[in-house]
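lol ok so funny story. i was supposed to be doing the assay writeup but got distracted and ended up predicting the structure for this chain instead. priorities right. anyway since i did it might as well share w the group, maybe its usefull for someone
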Amino acid sequence: MLLPVLSVNAAASDDTRVLVELPEMMQKHMLSNMRDHLVAINEILLYLASEDLDTAADIAEQRLGMSSLKSHGASHMAEFMPEGMRRAGTSMHKAASRFALKAQEGDALVAYNALNEVTSACVACHSGYKIK
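and the output, tada:
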């Protein structure tokens, strides 16, 4: 189980991710949004584990899904992002909305599979881009 972690750490010195330069205020805002995304995913996992799929769906849609874009100020940050970063972000938000719909159907396994699409979009973006 430690091998993937070790391989990521070994590669850290050869960081080939694209540096995205943002004005300092936007950088702080983006980091705050991403930290909230992590908290939201953690809350979703807790509600899935307790079989409260409706609450997991609500959190996903309101904090990660397409409904969250306005509250996260995504439109004013998009102009500073490379196209691939924008696509990855949009992919994550759309996947979160799809997850919410799947979770509302009530099948936990289907919901977990849909959540994987959300986290895969996060991994793709964080693997390709950095802001610091």
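The mean pLDDT is 90. Residues 19-130 form a domain with the Four Helix Bundle (Hemerythrin (Met), subunit A) fold (CATH 1.20.120).
back to the writeup now i swear
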